[in-house]
Every structure is written in C-alpha cells, then in structure tokens.
Task: inverse folding
C-alpha cells in the first residue's frame, strides 16, 4: 500500500517572512496535532502521544534531552511528535512500490520524497546489474551478508556504521558481533557530531560526557548556551530553562544567529505560555563570529585572571585549583599574552561584550556552559571545548550543584551507543572484559571513524558497508565523494525503518533489512521485550513500544544482529545469539558484567525513572585523566582567515527536519518558507559583495584542491546573522564540505565553517 504519496518534489521559489522572536506557543500545538493526524490518523495519534516519555511508555526517538521525574500528561515537544509521526506513519513502501520505481528513478528524488513513501515492510535486495529492489526472504538475505563477510581477504575490509537511535541492547550486541568477526571498524554518527566534545572532555576531566543533571540546570545561577539552537533541536530544554529563569537564573546565548528559542519561550504546557507573552529567556545575546568561541573563552579567562589580580582571593576558586587541577600556571601565562585585538578579531565581539559576560560569571555562584554543533564542527573544536573547560575550572564550576559542562547530545541514544562499545577505538579495558565474558580475542587495532571509512570506501580498501540505521551518504561531508565511495562497494546493507539516499546510492549488491521502530511492540519468544537508552545527562531507562509493528515482516535490531552474527560466525565463536534474541534480559546480564556502572542492570530498570550512571567529576570531583587531575590546557588561538570577497558558511538544521530526514520545506522560526534552497547572509555583506537580497547564485566552496564543490541556483536571503558569516541547510550543503576538512583531534567534518564565494547566475549564463 502506498497512500497519499506526493506526485513530485516541490520546486517552489522560497518565500521569506520576518524571523520569529519566540518559540513554541499555539503554532507548535497546532503543528503537533496536524502532523499526527496526517501521518497516523486520530486513533494512533492519541495512542502514541499519550505514551510518549511516560513511565511504562516509550522514549522519544528524537533528541537526547532527558525526562523530568514529574511528568506532565503531554511530556513531548512539537518536534518529538513529528519524529514519532514520521515513524508511526500509515504509509508503506512495500515490494509493489519498488517494482514501480527503479533505482535510477529513485536517485532523482529528493530526500523529502524518499522518506515520504513511508515505512519499509520487507527485506529487499538489489542484485548485481539490476536497477530494482526485489523482495528476498530473511534467511536468504542473512546468507548473502554472511557469505560476503566470510569471503573478504580481511575483516578490516568491512565497515559497520551505527546511527544514534539504536538501543543499548542492540548496540552492545552489534559491537560484540563486529569484534568477534575481527575488526574495530565501528564508525558512528557521533564521529560527525559530539566527537570533539568527547575527545576534549576525556582528556581534561577524564570522562567524555557532560557533568550536569536536569536538577543542576534548573537551579543554576547562569547558563551560557553556545552554538546550540534548542528551540528547534531540543525543545524540551526550553522548559528547564524557563524553570531556571523563574528561580532567578540568568541565560546568555552565544550564537551567530538570534535563534527564536533562545530569545523567548511560550510553554505550550502552561496557560501562561499559551495565552500570555511567555518567558523571555536570554538576558544577553552575543552575536559571535563563526568559530569565534575559542577567542571568546580566552577573553573571558583573561578578564577572570586580571580581576583576580585586582581583587586577590576573590575571583578564582584557589582551593579547587590547588586540590583538583594541574596546568594552571602555564594556562595563566598563556592567556595573559593573548592580545585583545586577537580576541576581538577572532570572536567578532567587542571587549565590552566579553567583559560583561565575564562579570556575569563572577557574579554567579554556579555556572553551566551548554553547547552543541556550533562548537563541535570546526577545525579547532577540540581546542575550543578545552578552553571552555579552562574557564569552568577557574571558578570550580564543576562537580557541585548548579554548575558544570553540558554538551547537549543529538540522537536519542547516541551517548548510550558509545557507552555500549560503538566506537572505533574502545579502550583496552573494555575489550579485555568483552573478550573474557564471551571467550574470544577481540581485535585490538583501532578501526576507521566515519570520515576514514568513507575515504577507505573511496579508495577501494573497504568492500562492505553495514549500517545500523542512519544515512551515511547524506550525513557525511563531500556528498560527491561519498556517493562515489558507496558505488565502489561490493555490498551495502542498511537496517532501516524508512527509505533514504543511502538505499538508492549503493554498492554493487544492496540489501535493505526493515526493522521495528522504538514506538513499536517487540514480541520475542520469552514475551514482550523492553530495551534501554541513555540520555544526554547519563540517565538510563527502559523503553517499550506501544504500537503494532508497521508490518509482520519486520524484525527487531537485536534479532537482525543475532541472525547475522549466528550465520557469519558459525563454528568460530560459541556465543548463544539465539537465546539473547529470545530474551533481552540475558543481554543486559552480559552488559552488567562488561560495562562499568551497569551492575544489577535488570533490577535497576524496574524503577520507571531509570538510574543515573556514575560520573566521577560530577559525583566526587575525581578526574581520571593522565595526571588524575582536571587539566588546564594551553590552546593556541587560530582564527580562520577569510579571503576578500568570501564568507564563512555554516550548515544548520531547519525547524522541520531531523538530520537527513526532511519533513517539509518550512523553517518557521527563521521565516523561510516553501524551499530549502537558500543561503542566509547579512544584508551589509550582500551589499558589499555586490549581491541583492532574493538574487539566485551558485555557491562555491574553496579548499586547497582543485575539485569543484558547488550548490547551484540558491537564493540569497538577507538575514540577521553575524557579519561575514552565512548559513545554508544540512544535508544539502554537505556537497560544499571537503572530506579532508576536519576538526583536529576528533576528525569531525567542519560542517560549521566552510569558506564560500557566490557567483551571479545571469553572468554564468552569459559566459556559457
Ligand atoms: N528537531 C530536530 N531535533 C534534533 C535534530 C534535528 O535535526 N531536528 N538533530 C539532533 C542531533 S543529531 C543533534 S547533534 C542536535 C543538533 O543541535 P544543534 O547543534 O542545535 O543543531 P544545528 O542546527 O547544527 O545548530 C547549531 C547552532 O549553532 C550555531 N552556531 C554555528 N556555528 C557556531 C559557532 O561557531 N559559534 C556559536 N556560538 N554558535 C554557532 C548555529 O547558528 C545554530 O544555532 O539536535 C538533535 N535534535
Ligand atoms: N553538513 C552537516 N553535516 C552533518 C551535520 C551538520 O550539522 N551539518 N550533523 C551531523 C550530525 S550531528 C549527525 S548526528 C549526523 C546524522 O547522521 P545519521 O544518524 O546517519 O542520519 P539520520 O538522518 O539521523 O538517519 C536517518 C535514517 O535512520 C533510519 N532510522 C530511523 N529510525 C530508525 C530506527 O529506529 N532504527 C533503524 N535501524 N533505523 C532508523 C531511517 O531509515 C532514516 O532515514 O549527520 C552529521 N552531518
Ligand atoms: Mo548529532
């Protein structure tokens, strides 16, 4: 059944209105219910939304924001409801659909159209030389994968990608399967996301995760939000920010764009939010230059040190610095010699703005610094996050109530997947324990991350790609390279819920293995199963689907992994895959032996609010770094030099997408309608560069090779972004980001800083 499929993609001209100055409120409520009714019908809408984020219900498959202990009847946001509607849609893409549409045709369709076709219903294969997917039985599909994996020259020729929706149980088994097979090639979406945060935090505080709980956030004196757009990407964070405000907390937003959710919030769960003007959130907004945060935090450090010179013993937390940190002297000497000219040029802010923020930090008993992709996706991202940590260490703003470091994670279980071992370079202690638990020798050599995997595919070193969810071709940088890389594979396999570009740009042979979503009931031999997830603040809890599966032919991720592992590793390891597939409690039993913090796992998840994983810096100010101290670091400032006539471009999410899944061509808060083919630029920059608001241009990125990377026929929109900065939508703009352009230390694509130039369309036509 394919119902209500749009006939073709919208190719409308973008329409613009003034950006909104508040988030949520009535329009959000309307959108929530309209989307639900459209995709799921009335009955399913009521059934699903009632169980979302509730005790004994399912965890929102959207973002990784935690659930409060006291839950409202409607504990979800507009965008969470959209993700659920997308999964619980009544539309289906079954074998009939694939008979009708060839691969060549599907490749011409937009991301939006592909996902709009609905849920995948049965296993499919595209055989060598064929232009169509055809149905295949589960047994046969599993056989194709196992035979191929066993025929490779080395297990390192296979790559096993994971997106961040996979449950803890599935992630643990997937990592086990891959290591028992013989490789650590386990790239994940985190490599493109918060890898810079994990890398920096592991080094300087000993744990690659945030140190803040929901309670901390709500009682903090000062919350600085850098490089994050919570109104769209973590809407339920606004509720916590509102609570912090009502308790007298101060909020400062640091962002090149005045995002609606940062300015004002009308909480749709309260009458005040729906009827009155809502709560103003940010007390201050710093319109920073792209990649300017390193300079900003150096500047703040400098003000704190110099104020301490004037008021000795009053500004810095000497007790904390002496007892718990090292490297202070070198840090202090370094910061004092960075000039204000460098800081102002690097940040795009003036000294007064930076001093004011530093004074707010001095006035606050507790400070939280939150961040997301605006900090992690730059060349100097790791250095920047280390610099953020330096500032927090100066005043002991870690490991006490209301204070800490808060990398706000993306996918609903991206943090849990990493905890479970989805990482191309898990530490030896983890591998030792895993090997002991299951009686085998795990591969020790580090595997490839996402960028390295795509490079290996491009260079012919990788022959097989298996994806546990996600859409690697669209998510990774350098789309043209990624597509070429995919096409060089012998076999690409995708465990997925809905159709996307990585299913139509494929290896010689391609398989789609359709799986249950988080909203759906998972019935196995021992009965209905639950799985677990970990949120952005390290809380783990159970989630149970409530809806009937989209098709009788779907298998759970756990069952699919067990099937593949059983068939591939027959006679090689003795692991009881089948038993674990029948009863996920057995998987949790193994997890409790291997993963720190999960003792009595099955017991602990009986508590409907779940349990908090230990976090030594947060809980006891203990820092498992190389020196067993929290580390001040010296980070050289490197400001990106943008040549004359060029701009620095970032790629962002619209209000109506979840990563590569585009729900519509609307970006309500930013006032962009009907099309995503836009580049947002400051009006003065447009004028200086000789372009007009509304003009169509080709956008070229510039990199030190002679490859042409271009977005054709995009409309320029005058927008209140910082000077010499521009923005376009991810994933379309990934064609502009060179695969080699990555963050130092984390290898994350620099999706938020690409040097671009525009060319008039008309001039080009004349030349041609
Ligand atoms: N609805 C919805 N929710 C989502 C997602 C989604 O696509 N849709 N994606 C999920 C995922 S995987 C993730 S990782 C998160 C992403 O959450 P965000 O990080 O909020 O997402 P982005 O759209 O990438 O927005 C980055 C923000 O940083 C700002 N910014 C860019 N560069 C800089 C900079 O150099 N300095 C500063 N200070 N600011 C900068 C941008 O203007 C923008 O406001 O959201 C998660 N939640
Ligand atoms: N230019 C640029 N590039 C970026 C970013 C950026 O800001 N700019 N952001 C980066 C970030 S932060 C991230 S996290 C990555 C995201 O990269 P990915 O995680 O690879 O991409 P998604 O779009 O989240 O994947 C969506 C697909 O997942 C499948 N899916 C959905 N639910 C399930 C499920 O329950 N199980 C399974 N098996 N499959 C499911 C569906 O088939 C859907 O099409 O992109 C990165 N790429
Ligand atoms: Mo992400």
Result:
């Amino acid at each position: 059944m394919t119902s209500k499929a749009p006939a073709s993609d919208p190719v409308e001209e973008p329409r613009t209105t003034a950006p909104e100055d508040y988030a949520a409120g009535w329009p959000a409520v309307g959108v929530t219910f309209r989307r639900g009714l459209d995709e799921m019908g009335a009955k399913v809408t009521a059934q699903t939304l009632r169980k979302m984020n509730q005790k004994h219900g399912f965890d929102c498959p959207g973002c990784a924001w935690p659930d409060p202990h006291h839950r409202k009847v409607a504990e979800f946001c507009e965008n969470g409801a959209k993700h659920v509607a997308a999964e619980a849609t009544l539309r289906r893409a079954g074998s009939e659909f694939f008979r009708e549409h060839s691969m060549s045709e599907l490749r011409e369709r937009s991301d939006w159209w592909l996902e709009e076709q609905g849920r995948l219903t049965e296993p499919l294969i595209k055989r060598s030389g064929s232009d169509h997917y055809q149905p295949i039985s589960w047994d046969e599909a599993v056989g194709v994968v196992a035979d191929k994996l066993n025929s490779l020259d080395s297990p390192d020729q296979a790559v096993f990608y994971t997106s961040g929706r996979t449950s803890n149980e599935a992630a643990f088994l997937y990592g086990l399967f891959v290591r028992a097979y013989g490789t650590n090639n386990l790239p994940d979406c985190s490599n493109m996301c918060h890898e810079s945060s994990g890398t920096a935090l592991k080094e300087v505080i000993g744990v690659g995760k945030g140190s803040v709980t929901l309670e901390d956030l709500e009682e903090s004196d000062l919350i600085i939000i850098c490089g994050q757009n919570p109104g769209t990407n973590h809407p339920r964070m606004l509720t916590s920010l509102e609570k912090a405000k009502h308790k007298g907390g101060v909020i400062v937003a640091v962002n090149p764009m005045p995002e609606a959710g940062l300015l004002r919030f009308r909480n749709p769960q309260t009458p005040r939010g729906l009827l009155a003007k809502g709560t103003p959130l940010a007390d201050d907004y710093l319109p920073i230059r792209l990649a300017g945060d390193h300079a900003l935090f150096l500047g703040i450090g400098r003000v704190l040190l110099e104020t301490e010179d004037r008021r000795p013993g009053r500004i810095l937390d000497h007790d904390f610095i002496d007892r718990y940190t090292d490297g202070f002297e070198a840090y202090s000497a370094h910061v004092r010699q960075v000039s204000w000219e460098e800081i102002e040029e690097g940040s795009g802010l003036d000294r007064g703005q930076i001093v004011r923020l530093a004074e707010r930090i001095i006035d606050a008993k507790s400070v939280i610094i939150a961040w997301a992709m605006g900090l992690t996706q730059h060349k100097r991202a790791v250095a920047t996050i280390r610099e953020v940590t330096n500032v927090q260490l100066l005043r002991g703003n870690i490991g006490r109530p209301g204070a800490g470091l808060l990398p706000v994670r993306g996918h609903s279980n991206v943090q849990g997947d990493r905890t479970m071992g989805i990482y191309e370079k898990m530490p030896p202690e983890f591998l030792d324990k895993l090997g002991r638990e299951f009686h085998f020798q795990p591969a020790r050599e580090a595997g490839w991350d996402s960028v390295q995997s795509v490079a290996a595919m491009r260079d012919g070193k990788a022959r097989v790609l298996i994806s546990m969810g996600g859409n690697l071709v669209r998510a990774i940088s350098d789309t043209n390279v990624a597509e070429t890389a995919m096409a060089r594979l012998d076999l690409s396999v995708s465990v997925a819920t809905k159709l996307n570009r990585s299913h139509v740009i494929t290896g010689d042979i391609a398989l789609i293995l359709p799986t249950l979503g988080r909203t759906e009931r998972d019935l196995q031999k021992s009965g209905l199963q639950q799985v677990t997830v970990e949120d952005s603040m390290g809380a783990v809890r159970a989630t149970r689907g409530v809806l009937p599966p989209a098709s009788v032919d779907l298998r759970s991720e756990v069952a699919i992994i067990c099937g593949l592992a059983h068939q591939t590793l027959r006679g090689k390891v003795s692991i009881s895959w089948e038993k674990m597939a029948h009863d996920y409690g057995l998987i949790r039993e193994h997890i409790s032996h291997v993963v720190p913090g999960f003792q009595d796992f099955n017991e602990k998840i009986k508590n409907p609010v779940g349990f908090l994983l230990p976090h030594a810096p947060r809980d006891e100010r203990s820092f498992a770094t190389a020196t067993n101290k929290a580390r001040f670091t010296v980070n050289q400032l490197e400001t990106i030099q943008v040549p004359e006539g060029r701009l620095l471009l970032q790629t962002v999410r619209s209000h109506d997408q979840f990563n590569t899944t585009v729900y519509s061509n609307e970006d309500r808060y930013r006032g962009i309608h009907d099309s995503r083919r836009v580049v947002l630029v400051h009006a003065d920059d447009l004028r200086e560069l000789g372009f007009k608001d509304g003009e169509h241009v080709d956008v070229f990125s510039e990199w030190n090779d002679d490859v042409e990377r271009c977005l054709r026929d995009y409309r320029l929109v005058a927008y209140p972004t910082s000077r010499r900065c521009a923005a376009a939508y991810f994933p379309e703009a990934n064609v502009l980001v060179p695969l080699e352009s990555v963050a130092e230390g984390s290898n994350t694509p620099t999706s938020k800083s690409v040097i671009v130039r525009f060319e008039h369309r008309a001039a080009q036509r004349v030349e041609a």
Notes: Residues 26-51 form the longest helix (26 residues).
